[in-house]
Structures
1.
Amino acid sequence: GYDLGLTWRSDEEGFEGTLEEVRAAGGVVASRRVDLADAEAGARTVDELAEELGRLDVLVNNAGTGASEPFLEHGLDEWRRVLEVDLTAAFTCMQAAARRMRDQGDGGRIVAVTSVHEHVPLGGSAAYCAAKGGLGLLVQVAALELAEHGITVNAVAPGEIATKMTGQQDEDPTRTDRPGLPLGRPGHAAEIAAAIRWLASEESSYATGASFVVDGGLMLMAAEANRRLA
C-alpha cells in the first residue's frame, strides 16, 4: 500500500522490470540512480525521494557489495569501497530518513538488510563481515536512540539467497541442493521480502533493535558441522 521511492545503480533492465511490476499493481513510484560508493549521495537521494513523494514512513537499506580476498592480501581501496557501500552509506541513509520521520512526528520504520555474516565470519570476506557486523550494531544503537520518536529499527539477516550476488539470479532455489543446510536449499528473494514487509507493517510495532535471521538454518550448523567432520 505504500508509494515507493526506488534506487538503482547498474542493473537498468532489472530496475525497469521492477518499475513495471509496481505500476502494474497500481503503485506510485519515484526513482533515482545513485552509487552508494558515495555515501553522501545516499542521504541526498533519501531527501529527494521524500520531497517528491511528500513524506517518508519506511526506509529499507538493501544495497550491498562484497569482496573476496584473503585477509593478508586484502587491498585498502577495496576495503574502503565495501565499507562505504555496506556501512557508511547505510548510516547516512538511515540518519537522513530518521530526521524526516522525527520531524513528521508520527514514527516510522527503518529496516537494514545485513547478512548471516553480521553474526558469523566467512573466510576471505574481511571487509564484508566487518561492514555487516558494524551495521548490526548500528541498528541497535539507532533503535535505542530513536525509540522515543516512535521509530523502530531492525535488521534482516539473510543466508544464501538466489540472487545475482550469489550467481543464481532467476533460478528456482527449491531445485538447488544444499546438503549443509537443514532446509536443504538456498532461499528465495521473496522470502526475504516477506520479512521486510512484516517489519514495515504495523504488525511489527513492538519489535526494535532485533536482527531477524532468515537463513534456512545455516547458523544452527556450527556444532553439527564440527561433529560430522570430527
2.
Amino acid sequence: MSGPGIKRYYLIDASRGIAAICVMALHYKGFMIDASWGTYPSAGGYKAPLEDLLWPAYRHGELAVPFFWMISGFIFCFVYRGSKISFRNFAVKRFARLYPLHLATLLIVLAFQAVLYLQITETPFFPNNDPYHFVLNLFFISAWGFETGLSFNGPIWSVSVELIVYALFWLYVRTLPVGLLTAVLLAAISFALTKAPFLGLPAYCAVLFFLGVFTYLTLTKLGVRRALYVGAGGIALFAAVALGPGTDGIPKTLVLFLAFAPVLMILGALDMRNPREHKTWLLRQLAVLGDISYAVYLLHFPIILILVNLIVLAGVDRAFLSDSLLFFVLFVSLVIFVSYQSTRYFEQPMRRYLQRKLSHA
C-alpha cells in the first residue's frame, strides 16, 4: 500500500536528522551564557556563524519539534498500521529505544550543571535543576504538567510529551479502523483539548502526530504522481496563507500542517518512486541522519554544557568562540560524531538487551 517493496522512507528519515540539526543550531547560542536563554541575542551584537544562510534554524529551530511529531505519526502509521502488537511489547520497544540515552544524558547534565554552578554560581540554561525536577526527569514525565519549567536536559520535554501520544496511538490502532476519517477525528478532538488544564502540550503534540498519520494515509491513497502534485499544491497553499493578510486568526497547528504535510508528501512520494533506489550509497548515507537524530537531539545540549564548562575554566573569550565559523564547524562535527558512536555502540546494544530482557521478564 505504500509502494511495491518499500521498507523504509529514507528521505523522511533524513529530514528528521536535518530537523535535529536545526534544534542544535537554535541552541548554539548557549555558548553566549550571559545572554538570555529564551531570546535570540542578535540585538546585543551577537552574530552567529553563517547567520545569513542559517538564520531560519537559528531563529525558528523550535519549529523542528512539531515537525518531529508529524514525522512520528507518519512513520508509526507506516510501521504499525494493521499491527496486533500487545501494549506490553509496544511499551518495551519504546522504553528500550528512548530511555537509555535519556538517563545517560540526564546524569551527564546533572554532573556538569553542578560543575558549572561551582564556577559561576548559577545554571544559566535550564534553571529548574532541583531534586523534584530530577525525579520528574527520572520517570520521563518532565513535561506532563507537574513541572515549573524546563530542567536538566531541556530538549527532552518534547519526547516526554510524545510518550502520552504513543499510548493513545497504540489504543487507536488496536480499537479503531485506521483511516483518514478517524485520523482527522482524533486530530480534531486533540485540538479541542489544547486549552484544557494539564492537557495542552500532549494535545498539541497529538494534533500534529495524527495529522502525520493523515498525511501517510493520504500518500498511500494518492500514489506517487498525484502525491507529488498535491504536495506542490500544498506548498503553494501554505505560501498563500503565510504571506496573505489576516493570518493571525488561523490556528498555528493548521499553518504547521500546511507547511509540513506537503514536504512529507513529496519526500514520501520520492521514496516510493523506485524502491530499488533505496539501496544506493547516497540514500543510505542520508538515512544515517535519521538513525542518529535522537542522539543529536539529546546529546547536543550536554556537549554544549561540557564545552561551556571548559571555556569558563580556561577563561577563553566566549564571544570569539560563539561567532567563529571554525568553532561552529568543529562543534557540529563533534555532535554528529558522538551521536553516531552513541547510536552504534550504546543505544542499539542497550535496545537489544532491554528488549530481550523485558520481553521475557
3.
Amino acid sequence: MEYLRATVVTNHMAADSVSELLMRCGAHGTQIIDRQDVPDEVQLKTAWATMDQDVLDAMPVDVHVLAWFATPTDAENARAMVKTLPGTLGFDAGPLDVTLEAVQDEDWAENWKQYYKPMRVGKHLVIK
C-alpha cells in the first residue's frame, strides 16, 4: 500500500500539538524528530546509555513532525488544518511548513532490526 507522508516543520513547544492535530486529521501514526529529545553528553555520562553521534548528525536542525495518511484527501485536509494552528495555540509554532511525499508501506516488524548491531559491553559480554 502507498501512503502519503506529511512532514511539518515546527518547534519544540508546538510539536505535540502538531502531532495531535495530524492524528485528528486521520493520520495512521506520527513521529516527532526533535534534537532536544536526545540526551546531551552530561546526561549520557550520568546514565547507563549509549548514543552514536551519527544519530544526532542525521537529525534535522528544526523539529519535524511526520505523519502517514492513507488518502490524499486526509493529507490535504491536514495541510490546511496545520495552517490554522498559529491562531489557536497562543504561542509561536515555528514555520509550520508542510510537505507531502508518497512512500511505500514497509514491513516495520522486521525492518527495524537492520539498525541494531551486536555491541560489546565487556570482555565477556556481547549484546546481540
4.
Amino acid sequence: MRASRGLAAGLLGLFLAEGVAASAQSGMAQPRSASATIVYVNRQYGFRFTLPADCRGYSIVTDEWMGSAPANNERGPLLSIRDPRWTEEQPRQDIPIMIFTGAQWKLLQNGKLTVSAAPYDPGEIGRNRRYVFAIPPRYNFDEDPGYREVMEILKEHPLHAF
C-alpha cells in the first residue's frame, strides 16, 4: 500500500513538473510566487489585497463615494491603492475599492441606490460580515497608464476579506 502511494505521489509530481515545463515553453503565464508579491492589509475594514512586487512603495488614497437613494444620500469609504510610479505630471491608474455596508449593498442591488452614471453597478470583489468591497464601474474609463496592469491584478482575485 505504501509503495503504491509513493508511486502515485511520484507520478503526480512528475506530471505536475511536466505541466509546468510545458506551460513555460508555451509562454503561458506562471502563477506568481509568494516572494513576488506584497500584501496590503486593512484591519479597519477587514481585508487584505495582494499586489505584485513592483507595487512596493504603493500608497493608499482615502476618499468617499457618494450616492443617491430616494430617502437620503448615502456615502461610504473609497480606498485607492496608488502605484508608486504615480506623479502629478504622469498619473497612473489607481485600484479603487468602494466599501459598502450590507444595507447599502442591498439598496444598490435592489436599484434603490445609485453611485454612478454608468449603466451597471460596481463589481463585487469580496465581502465579510460587515462590508462588501467593490470596484467602481468604469474605473478605468480614462485609460490612464497602468490600467491594463490593474486589470491583470484584478483577474487574480487579489482581495481576501476576513
